[in-house]
Amino acid sequence: MSATGADMFRLDGKVALVTGGSGGIGKALGVGLGLAGARLALTGRSQEKLDANAAAAEAAGCADVDTFGDFDLTEEGRPAELAAAVAERMGGIDILVNVAGLNRRKPALEFPEEDWEVVMNPNLKAVFFLSREVARLWIEGSRDADSDGKGKIINIASLAGAIGIPEIAPYAASKLGVVAITRTLGVEWAQEAICVNCIAPGYHETPMTIAQGIFDNPKIGPWVRSRIPMGRLGTTEDLVGPAIYLASAASDYMTGQTVFVDGGFEAG
């Protein structure tokens, strides 16, 4: 590695594909990576929200932002189509950030069977198959690790995959699965100049958690706050620094790992 100091964290000219780009975490990570120099490819199911987040990224100072809507990554063949479309339009992919996901909160005895795949497919299936197709481009293509740097995959898991939280069993299982995929692919592709790592957020104020009213729930909110050693809820911006680190040359000797960004919740 030739870069030192702050230069190790620069992403100038790198293409970062961010799924869940129409959501709160996807927006924050996209802006953060863009301000570190990355060229952004945002994808999500809502073109309107994608356009709004792309405009916000440009207003924040990101120089090169493009959107890729209408890709349902749970459908067979769509991850490969997205990877190919981004690579063709942007000239390649250097960083993949798998953010997209959703939750269904229900007591286990009341959880509808038809909702199992509603949670598992975007949270776990899409992560694996999009990672595979991006890695395929790197492994079977002309990527040169010496000149292009290592390919970086960053998955978003959750504190829920590490501790027991009532009424979210399928979500917790999917996020623990993301941790397992991260470890396995990190080892499997270590000789291919690909680093696969994971960020596990704790309780962060995002559009999804706010909409679910988690922190206003008298049964949940006080318990959550009492368990965070740092004494506050996380923000989406708290996830940006770890993402830049994992996307950059600073983390070139790190793979298969999960970083908890939770104010100390899991450690406590």
Write up what this structure looks like:
By secondary structure, this protein is α/β, with parallel strands linked by helices. The chain is 41% helix and 14% strand. A 7-stranded parallel beta sheet has the order 3-2-1-4-5-6-7, with helices on both faces. Helix 1 crosses helix 9 (240-247) and helix 4 packs parallel to helix 6. The longest helix is centred in the middle third of the chain and has 27 residues, at 114-140. The mean pLDDT is 95.
Widest β-sheet, arrangement of strands:
3-2-1-4-5-6-7
How much is the average pLDDT? 95
Largest sheet: 7 strands, parallel
Write down the CATH class.
Alpha Beta
CATH fold label: Rossmann fold
Structural class, from helix and strand content? alpha/beta
Distance between the termini: 35 Å
Low-pLDDT stretches:
none
- Beta-strand share of residues: 5-15%
* Overall number of strands: 7
The CATH architecture classification is: 3-Layer(aba) Sandwich
Strand and helix layout:
Elements: E1 15-18, H1 24-35, E2 39-44, H2 47-60, E3 65-69, H3 78-90, E4 95-98, H4 114-140, H5 145-148, E5 151-156, H6 169-188, E6 194-201, H7 207-211, H8 221-227, H9 240-247, E7 258-261
Parallel strand pairs: 1-2, 1-4, 2-3, 4-5, 5-6, 6-7
What key phrases describe this protein's structure?
about 270 residues; 9 helices; 7 strands; Rossmann fold; alpha/beta; about 15% strand; 7-stranded parallel sheet
